[in-house]
Amino acid sequence: MNPFKRLFYILLSDNSDSKHINSAADTFAYCLMPNHFHFFIRLKELPLQGLQTLEGVEESTIEGSFSKAFSNLCNGYTQAYNKRFGRKGSLFVPRFKRKEVDSLEYSCTLIRYIHLNPVIHGFVKNPEDWIYSSYSSHISLKPTLLYRDEVISWFDDVSNFKALHKEKIPEKFILEMEF
Description:
- The chain is mostly helical.
- The protein contains 8 helices and 2 strands.
- It has helices spanning 3-12, 16-24, 60-85, 104-120, 135-139, 148-154, 158-164, 171-177, and strands at residues 25-32, 37-43.
- A two-stranded antiparallel sheet has the order 1-2.
- It is globular.
């Protein structure tokens, strides 16, 4: 299997690895690119087993656990890829980054940015042509692990979702995201 498709399968298909991701986070959108990827997720409130109270447990503990699990998954994939193709070093742009999403407007622009990333980078002309993103899942009625209904409600309906994906992303937003 093509290594890029393998990463897609590991991260996003309905298998044991993706269930671990989906048990820790709600996934709103994603896009896998040749040397980086984008996810829009919301961390779930996870019960901390064996603790009577949360006293002394920092909020960052849950986020840190998810970040570590995601990092381990990507590092494992990179090691397997490098071994298979006799190469060394990182596969992805250097580090894991995250941004807080605090408004509906920002959420909608972020979804569009994620889906339009292959268009922005010149890989395809339309977001529906890039099979490694959640765009097609959002406009489909097929079962999905995405929080599709919530995302579509932010855009009012599928038709508006599609129409807004035809609009250009503000340059300021693109620059901010590619920090």
